[in-house]
Design the sequence.
């Protein structure tokens, strides 16, 4: 979670309720306040939560006893009683984040205070249903082997992010036809939980990345955020009023599936225009060599002028997706991320803003367009964060509202 100083802007935060029977909700509210107000005192927490000072003090003592909260040095020289600053204990709990992506696997260890402790990443041309689970569990074992005994005792579970419906698209990456049947009905979370011996929760990769980008933003965070990550395909997620919009399938925010038009005016999805797959197709059409491996390591200069054309068409498609989504869902910010080098994502962002300015936005003000902070690691990071969030923190996540 994040560290920020106490400010009046945090007063609309999740307020605790003093009645009996809501102890857990009060604990979550206090722990959340400490997470976003690093260094808050007991008096600060009582004021912000609406709980009485004695109730807050008792909750803090219990959280400290469980190793979730630590105390800083007493602050003297202020009016009134000396204040003791409170912080999340980085060693209070850990979660492993895993992303099984279209062309990469990432496994990382995330601590209670919001720091990535270790990470491993490997690339492949397409996810092989016969080997990907063994690869993922092997990397999880590697991460766990590097943990101390204390860290292992406080490891609460695994957050797994992957695209929805891999079986429908894996063959578009050159995988043999048998892969479609192998992926059909494969429960990744269940298999990893069994192999790793840890509770495992699945999230759509775009939704997990959206959550990570929400947490990465400076306070105060706007109550509505849409996220689009340009990768092999276009991952996406939406947070509205502090709630991650997942739907029954976990793939409710499939903004890459929005239909736009190509240069000839024909209907086409955002995936088919604004993805790395689309860029590779354009390179192939002119006979240019198609780079392999991680796009972060490509020599992008050698791919001109195709890259400039792709960035422009992708920017237009993404701008249309943002405007169309804004027409039905209120959000104030659209975050554009990507698996490319930051300089390339910045060029894409400029194209999105350029095309947004020329599109009708209706009676509502168009959302601001910001760059993503986490790049290709957003999904694995968000999956780990969500496991910790759902275990320890307040459900009333409108505490980040402006």
Sequence:
């Amino acid at each position: 979670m994040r560290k920020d100083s106490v400010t009046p802007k945090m007063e609309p935060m999740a307020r605790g309720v003093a009645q009996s029977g809501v102890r857990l909700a009060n604990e979550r509210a206090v722990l959340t306040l400490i997470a976003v107000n690093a260094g808050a005192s007991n008096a600060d927490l009582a004021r912000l939560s609406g709980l009485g000072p004695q109730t807050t003090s008792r909750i803090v003592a219990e959280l400290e006893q469980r190793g979730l909260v630590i105390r800083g040095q007493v602050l003297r020289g202020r009016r009134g009683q000396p204040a003791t600053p409170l912080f999340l204990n980085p060693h209070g709990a850990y979660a492993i984040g895993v992303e099984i992506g279209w062309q990469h696997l990432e496994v990382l260890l995330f601590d209670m205070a919001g720091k990535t402790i270790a990470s491993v990443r490997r690339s492949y041309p397409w996810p092989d249903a016969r080997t990907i689970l063994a690869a993922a569990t092997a990397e999880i074992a590697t991460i766990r082997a590097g943990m101390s005994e204390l860290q292992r005792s406080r490891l609460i579970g695994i957050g797994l992010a992957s695209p929805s419906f891999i079986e429908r698209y894996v063959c578009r990456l050159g995988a043999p036809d048998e892969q479609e049947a192998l992926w059909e009905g494969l429960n990744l979370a269940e298999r990893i939980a069994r192999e790793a011996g840890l509770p495992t929760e699945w999230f759509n990769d775009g939704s997990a990345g959206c959550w990570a980008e929400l947490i990465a933003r400076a306070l105060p965070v706007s109550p509505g955020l849409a996220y689009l990550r340009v990768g092999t395909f276009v991952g996406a997620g939406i947070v509205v009023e502090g709630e991650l919009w997942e739907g029954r399938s976990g793939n409710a925010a499939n903004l890459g599936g929005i239909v736009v038009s190509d240069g000839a005016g024909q209907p086409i999805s955002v995936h088919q225009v604004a993805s790395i797959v689309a860029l590779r197709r354009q390179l192939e059409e002119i006979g240019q060599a198609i780079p392999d491996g991680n796009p972060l390591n490509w020599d992008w200069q050698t791919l001109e002028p195709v890259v400039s054309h792709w960035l422009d068409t992708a920017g237009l498609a993404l701008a249309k997706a943002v405007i169309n989504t804004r027409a039905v869902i209120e959000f104030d910010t659209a975050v554009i991320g990507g698996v490319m080098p930051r300089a390339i994502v910045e060029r894409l962002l400029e194209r999105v803003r350029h095309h947004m300015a020329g599109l009708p936005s209706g009676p509502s003000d168009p959302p601001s367009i910001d760059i993503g902070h986490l790049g290709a690691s957003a999904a694995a990071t968000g999956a780990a964060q969500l496991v910790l969030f759902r275990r320890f923190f307040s459900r009333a996540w409108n505490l980040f509202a402006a």
About this structure: The chain has three domains: 8-89, 94-208+381-391, 222-372. The CA atoms of residues 106 and 315 lie 27 Å apart.
